[in-house]
Amino acid sequence: MAKRFKSRSSSADSPAASPELRLFRIPGIPEIRPGNDLVKCVASAATRAAIHFEDGDILVFAQKIVSKAEGTLVRLASVRPSPEALAIAGRLKKDPRAIEVVFRESRRIVRSDHVLISETRHGFVCANAGVDHSNVPGNDVVTLLPLNPDRSAKKLAAALRKRTHKRIAVIISDTFGRPWRLGLTNVAIGASGVPVLLDLRGSPDRQGKPLTATILAVADELAAAAGLLMGKSEGFPVVLIRGYRFKPVSEPAARIIRPAAEDLFR
Amino acid sequence: MAKRFKSRSSSADSPAASPELRLFRIPGIPEIRPGNDLVKCVASAATRAAIHFEDGDILVFAQKIVSKAEGTLVRLASVRPSPEALAIAGRLKKDPRAIEVVFRESRRIVRSDHVLISETRHGFVCANAGVDHSNVPGNDVVTLLPLNPDRSAKKLAAALRKRTHKRIAVIISDTFGRPWRLGLTNVAIGASGVPVLLDLRGSPDRQGKPLTATILAVADELAAAAGLLMGKSEGFPVVLIRGYRFKPVSEPAARIIRPAAEDLFR
Question: pLDDT by residue (tens digit) across B241-251?
Answer without folding.
Answer: 999 999 888 89
